[in-house]
Amino acid sequence: MNKRFASVVVASAGLLSLMSGTALADTAPPSPEQSCEGVKLTGALPAPPAGMAVVQDVTIGKDCKPVTGPVQYVPASSGKAAAKGALAAAPKAAAAAGRQFRSWNEMFDCCNIRMTGLYTTSTWSSADGRITTAATEARHEWNREPWDAGWSLKSSDKKDDCTNDCATVTTQANAEFTYKGIFDVTGKWYANTHHSNVKLNPDSTATCTFDVELRHTFIGWNWRRGCE
Questions:
Q1: Do residues 221 and 96 touch, judged by C-beta distance below 8 A?
Q2: Phi, psi (deg, nearest 5) at residue 110
Q3: Which of 8, 10, 115, 112 is nearest to 70 (CA)?
Q4: Are 190 and 183 in contact (CB under 8 A)?
């Protein structure tokens, strides 16, 4: 069986293209002949109204075809928006600012266990149509197994294009995770790389876009993303 590269573009209302390949079954050992390899998911979510969060799930379905859930608006910091990593404390440097915005970019397995996640918390203030100060913190979460195995954070970085007296502020956060554990003792099979971009505007609105790159997947993995 030929390995296939899968590239998926996830828009706010659906997918622009579909992955192809054959996914690895939950209970099977890693096998190059039964893998969904080189999967990339990407997309943007609309800015939620004040006091609301916008969330969306994408599931790796049979034959590596993604199943895209609806874009949902829920009360901020409740329901799906209340993910553990999404509720990070505000950046201390901008604690007095007037607006806060959080994002989360997570991969869950088919048993609803969060494997890896990248989270941002931004706070900013505005005056006279410009952002006067802004600060964003990035956080990372990953699942460990009880015998000192599982997922690990390999690398991470964060870049702000502006933090003081800005027309807009865009923050890009990245995190690369590797896995070595019960499903692969070599550490060479699984790797998740998360990218989150948040744009802050002086009118107190914000938008979020996300990418995740998966070296291999199981059927039933879920990409969960949102912002508030």
A1: no
A2: -70, -15
A3: 10
A4: yes
Kindly give the pairing relationship between strand 37-45 and strand 5-11: parallel
Instruction: Measure the CA–CA gap between 80 and 162, rounded to whole angstroms.
Output: 31
Asked if 121 and 136 count as a contact pair (C-beta separation under 8 A), the reply is yes
Residue 177 C-alpha from the chain's centroid: 12
Of 14, 110, 106, residue with least CA distance to 62? 110
- Residue 7: both structure tokens together: 């590239």
Q: Which of 223, 217, 192, 221 is nearest to 24 (CA)?
A: 217
Pairing type for strands 114-127 and 130-142 reads: antiparallel
Query: Given a cut of 70, is residue 66 above it in pLDDT?
Result: yes
Query: Using one digit for the tens of pLDDT, what is the confidence trace for 140-180?
Result: 999 999 889 999 999 999 999 999 999 999 999 999 999 99
Q: Are 104 and 227 in contact (CB under 8 A)?
A: yes
The answer, yes or no, to whether residue 87 has pLDDT greater than 90, is no
Query: Is pLDDT of 15 > 50?
Result: no
Rounded Cα distance between 76 and 112, Å, is: 22
In a 13 Å sphere around the CA of 22, the CA atoms on its Cβ side amount to: 10
For 227, the token pair is 């912002």
